Amino acid sequence: MRIGIFFGSSTGNTKKISYLIYKRLNKYIICNIFDISKINLDKFNNFDILILGSSTWYYGKLQYDWYNFLNYNKNIIIRNKIICFFGCADKLNYRYTFGDSLYYLYKIFNNNNIIIGYFNNIYKFNNSKSLLFKKYLLGLIIDDNNKYEKNIRIINIWISDLLLNILKN
Fold it and tell me: Average pLDDT of the chain?
């Protein structure tokens, strides 16, 4: 199975998390990593598993490079892939839109694909479109602004779960 990690990052936080995920996951399965601002849609076809990362901006907006990529590829159709999501968010300053960017990616990529990588919510916030059943997040959300010391542990837990799900599928 081929894994592609695709990220959009404005300040470098999501890029940093992307490379942490890449380094950990690449120990077990060969994967490639791409900045979404520097690729075209055809790149997705080279992979069986897509790991998509975006930060949430302002009040629940998708990261700028992802927004441009999806706007340019309005009729995007990705099928028969295993897809999971991750991103950066700020639970203190944006507690009403915490991690909403994952929801927007999910809306586009959930059709005709297998979604894995749901994550138990470990944060306290007021609202998130990425929260399912008041318990699970659509993917890994890292609060890089406020919980940095826990990031490595959280990423390792998420990747261990991903590896188990990949083996099942």
Answer: 85
Q: Are 73 and 33 in contact (CB under 8 A)?
A: no
For residue 110, the 8-state DSSP code is -
Which tens digits make up the pLDDT trace of 106-147?
A: 999 998 899 898 887 776 766 676 767 777 778 888 877 655
Euclidean distance between CA atoms 152 and 75, whole angstroms: 36
**Domain range annotation of the chain:** 3-168
- CATH architecture under which domain 3-168 falls: 3-Layer(aba) Sandwich (3.40)
Measured CA to CA, the distance from residue 98 to residue 114 in angstroms comes to: 24
Q: In what order do the strands lie in the sheet with 119-120?
A: 119-120, 136-137, 131-132
The pair of three-digit structure tokens given for residue 131, joined into one six-digit string: 């929260």
Cα angle for residues 158, 159, 161 (degrees, 5° grid): 65
